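Materials and Methods. Structural model of DUF779 domain-containing protein. The 131-residue sequence of DUF779 domain-containing protein from Hymenobacter jejuensis was retrieved and submitted for structure prediction as follows.
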Amino acid sequence: MPTLTPRVLVTPAAEAVIDLLREEHGPLMFHQSGGCCDGSSPMCFAAGEFRVGGSDVWLGRIYGCDFFMSASQFEYWKHTQLTVDVTKGRGASFSLEIPLGVRFLIRSRLFTEEESQAMAPVFAGDEVPEL
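The predicted structure was written out as tokens:
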């Protein structure tokens, strides 16, 4: 069975912040809406704190956290591999990392033709698979 191309990845620096947040808040999730309040940045919430549904897309799991995006935003990003990273500075969102003086951000690149042939599937937010 061929290896599927992941749609979203995470950097070691972001993993370290996720560890801190998980210790304080328990299981986590990410959502990227494309709306206001740093909506183009991934926002981290306690798992289940942000309600997702059929208008959201599940892109996969990063470091044990489900990653969702609004379906309309996904239309713009579906040809890119996203990498969740972290940088110093305060974002203008409700994301859990803000009190730490850092914010999550997305780095992206276009998929290669070969990667596009073996894409990991996406699911509606209300149909997340059990892995």
